[in-house]
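Aim 2, interim progress. The first record below pairs a target sequence with its C-alpha cells.
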Amino acid sequence: MTQYWPKEANFLVLEPGSYRTKAGVADHINIPRIHIPSLVGVKTVKKQVPAPIPSIREPAEAEEDVKMEDATAAGGEDNTADADLQPSGGLAAPAESEEQTIYICGAHLQAESKGEGGVKEIVKPVEDGVVKDWDAFTGLWKHILTRELKVKRVHNECPVMLCVPAKWSKGDVERATQIAFEEMNVPGFYAIEQALATLYGCNMTTGLVIDIGHETIDITPILDNMSIPHATHTIPLGGRDIDSHFLSLLLADTQFLEEFGSPAPTIDDARAIKESGVCEVAPYRLGWIEKRKQAVVAGPRKGSAGSDKGKEKDKEKEKEKEKEKEKADKADAAEKEKERVRRVEVTVGDRKATIGTIARTRLADVLFNPTSCGFPGVPSLQEACYMAVTEACEPERRLNLWENVVITGGSSLLKGLKPRMEHEIAPLIASSETSNEYQAKEIRWGGLPEHLTAFKERPQDAAFVGASIVAKLVFPVPGSHVTKADYNEMGPAAIHLKPM
C-alpha cells in the first residue's frame, strides 16, 4: 500500500448547511474563506458528441463491396460516384447533440440569474439539515473545491474533513464518502459530527450543543467525546421562522409601514433589518410582568389570627408584598414607556423607517413560545433542552451538561439570547425531581477561547474551528482516516471504521 504524506496547508474543511455552506483550509486562527449560499442553479446545455469511427470494416460490408464489383464487371451500372458521396466506415459521421445538465453556484449563479443564462431552476440541495438532491449537492461540492479553492481533480493532494449534521444517516455519510473519492479524487477523507466539532472548538469534551440553524434547531448532549443519539432533539424551527415572525411584527407596526412606504417590506427586508444589529431578544416573554404582579397581589397564605407572632409575621409579609408590588409597578411603567417612546431608525436599501420596541425585541418569541406564534404541538427551545439533558444521563452527570452549554448557528448572534434562555430554563431546572449537591442551580455558557481573536463574535464558526483542529490531528497520522487504499478495498463503508 502506497503511503502519502499530506501537507498541512492542503487540509480542507467542508461544512454544509441548509442556508449557507462554509469551506476553506483547515485553519483555527482565521475565519473560513468560503461562505456561499446553499443554492444551486440547474442549467441544461446541448453538447456536440461526434459519432464513433469504426477502425475495421464489418464482414457484411466487405461482402457487399465484392458483390458490387462483380456486378460492375458484368456490365452493371457503375455507382462509384454515388458511393463516394455516402459516409463510409472510415469517415467521420455527423456529430450528434445530447443534453447535459450542469450546476452553477455562488457568484456564477448570481451572474447567470441576472442575465439570460438559461438557468432552468434554482434548487436547495440541503433542506432541514438533510441532503434532498445529491446531484445538486455534488455540483455544489465540485464548485467549492475546483472553482473556489482551486483544487485540481487529476492531481488532488487535498484531504477533506466533512462536518456531518445531526440528522444525517449512515447511508448519507457513505454517499458523501463515495462522492469524495469518485467525483473529487481526494487522497483522504474524514467525517466528524457537527455538534462534536463545535464542542472541540470551544475546548470541551462534555457539554450541551444548541445549534440554531436556518430551518431547524439541533440540541445534542455530548458526554466524554460521545454524542447521545437517543437524547438528541431536533425542533422544526430556526432562523427562517424568526424572520417570518419578525416580518409579521413589522407589518403590525403602522408607523413603520407609513415611513417605509410602498411596496410593503418582504422577508428579505426583515432578514436585513435583523442582521443589521438593531434587534435584540427581550429578557422575558410578553405579559410576564403582569403575571408577576398578580402573583404578588395574591400573596402567601396568612398565619394564625389568634397569635401575636402570627400578626407580626402577617405585617412583615404585607410590607414585603407592598414592596414587591411597587417594584413590579415601576418595572411595568418603565417597560411601557420604553415601548411607547423608544423607536430605532433603520435603513433598508434607499428607504428609512423607525421600528418600535415590540417588533425589535419580540422576534425570537417563536423559539420560546411557538404555540402562541402559530406552531401548535412544537416544543419550545427550553423544553427541548431540558428533555435532552434529562434523557442523556443519570441525574449525577446532568450538572456537567448544564455547566457547559454552547450555543451556535447564525441566529446565535441575536443580542440578549443567552439571558432569555437562562430566564426560560431556570423554572424547569428548579422543578427537577432531585434536589441535592448534583442539582444545577443555573446554566453556564461555553464559547470559543479568547485567544482566537478572529472568532471573538462569531459563535456560528465554532464547528469549523473544531473541525480544523481535528483535521490537523487526524490527517498526518496513517490509519486514522479513510485513504484511497481503504476505499478501494472496502468501499464507502470504510468511513464507519474511523470513529467520528
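The second target in this work package is listed in the same format:
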Amino acid sequence: MLSALSRASSSSAAPAPPPPPSFSFDGPGSDDEGDDNDNADLPEIKIEPEPDTLLAPTSTKKRVRVKVAIEKGYSQLDWGRLQRSGADLRGGVTQLARITPEELAKHKTKEDCWQAYGGKVYNVTPFIKYHPGGVPELMRANGRDGTELFMKTHAWVNADLMLDGCLVGFLVR
C-alpha cells in the first residue's frame, strides 16, 4: 500500500517552477560599457525651472522671533472656550455688511480693531490678547487687509475657523 502511494505522488508531482527572470543594466560598471548606441535615437531632455519658480529666497533678512508671555486666561484653549460661549465677538454688528477699505481703515485702534483676511473682515478686538504672537504683532494689520502678511507668517493657520465668531462683513473694492 505504501509503495502505491509513493508511486502515485511521484507521478502527479508538480512541474518544476520556471527560472527567475533575468535583468540587464546598461550603466556605469555594467559589462556593456562603451556601447553608447542604445539611446542614440532619443533626444536629450533638459529640465530647467521656469523663471521665479523653485528658487531659493534671495532675502537674507530674518525676522527675529520673540517669545511672548501669554497672560493667564488668554491661551488658545481659552479663546476656543470664549468662541463657544455665545458671547458677542462682533462688537455689536448684527448683520454682515459690505465693507470698503475706507470703512476698514476707521477701525485701527486696540479698542476697535478690524482686519481683513481672504476678503472677509473680522473684528479682532476680542482676539487681541489671545494672539500667541502678542498684541504688537497682531496690530501690524490693523484697519487693513492683512492677507499677505498672514500668509507669510502662518499660512498653515485657518483664519476662518479661528475667527469665525468675529466676522463682520466682506471687503469690497
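The helical segments are 2-11, 76-84, 101-105, 135-138, 147-154, 159-162. This observation will shape the mutagenesis plan for the next reporting period.
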